[in-house]
Fold this sequence. Notes:
The structure is a single chain. The chain has a single domain (14-353), classed as TIM Barrel (Alpha-Beta Barrel). It is 44% helix and 12% strand. The chain has 15 helices and eleven strands. Helix 4 (84-96) runs parallel beside helix 5 and helix 9 (210-222) packs parallel to helix 10. The chain has an eight-stranded parallel beta barrel. The chain is an alpha/beta fold. It binds S-adenosylmethionine. S-adenosylmethionine (SAM) is lined by residues 67-68, 70, 105, 107-108, 138-140, 160-161, 163, 202, 231, 233-234, 236, 278, 313-314.
Amino acid sequence: MSKLKTILSKDKLSRQDIIYLLSLENKSEIEELFTHANNLTKKVLGQNVYLRGLIEFSNICNRNCKYCGIRKSNSEVERYTMEMQEIQEAARWTYQQGFGSLVLQSGERSDPEFLKFVDNILQNVKELSNDRLGVTMSVGEQSLETYNRWYESGAHRYLLRVETTNADLYQKIHPSCHSLKERIEALDRIQKSGYQVGTGVMIGLPGQTIQDLADDIIFMEEKDIDMIGMGPYIPHINTPLNKTVKNFDAKKQLQLALKMIAVTRIYLPDVNIASTTAYGALSEKGKGQALQCGANVIMPNLTPRKYQENYKLYENKPAFLASYKRDFDKLKDEIKATGKTIGFNKWGDSPHYFKRTGESRNQFQA
Ligand code: SAM
């Protein structure tokens, strides 16, 4: 039996196995890895892909992450916050199309006015959908009180990427006032508040090694993470980190990021894994490829077109949205081409969450 087959037949991968799989270069072996991860996804989680409509409701941010296009110091960006009515419109459309869930994402703020605005969004979304739209938050590091407050208002999943679990690398890609320790403590608060907890990393950061990525995957197991939203790092021209990038190779970056999904799926079979926007930024086929090597969630971007140019986290971020309907029709075809089905009107929650907490699902969540 080949070394690859021996590793793939194991019940549990070791750190060395993870490193071996992430280091694969041979095309047919990579295909074998992806097929294995895809079959495992279908076996454990079924054929469904779950939809989360992504609304990037504000790009105002107090942070200065060195990789991010909406960092506070980027004065080239026109700052916006969507009107409540615009958010409601996007949410209503999502609900009517049977998406099941929304993701509310923004830059990071913690002032009382912002916290209340988010609270109002949640209450409005719940009201317009008779409590049926599930909501994932992605609004950064907040206090336990805030996490509790938004949970009470109806959010039930929270995504906070740890970005990298290598403390030195974390420090290199952030200003000195950010800390990995604080990021991890925020994740702990999210779990304490009762959310399904999501995290993830950027893949292919300057200075990041395969060993770092293996440690990231092991971290997600140790933290009992329920959902994973990770993606390739893509340079943004107006950021300090961009200056350290030499010869960015989109093809290689995408392949590494796809391997990361496949290996994470094999290591953590019962978590939700998203095919995130950055996969689509590196190749038109990227998001579909992610769905065929372990991802089971997709987050169509519903931010109105007029704002998308100003939520450019990295270069080439898909910002088309000719019309919600036309783009959704295209996405339906893309999902069909992967051989999967869409889990309409379902929350599609992470089975890992129910195992971790012993909670049972209701019918809408199934
Ligand atoms: N402020 C919230 C937070 O920090 O969690 C949510 C918004 S933040 C813009 C969302 C994610 O975008 C980050 O966690 C980061 O991983 C990703 N991101 C930012 N810049 C990126 C880049 N250049 N390439 C890839 N991903 C990037």
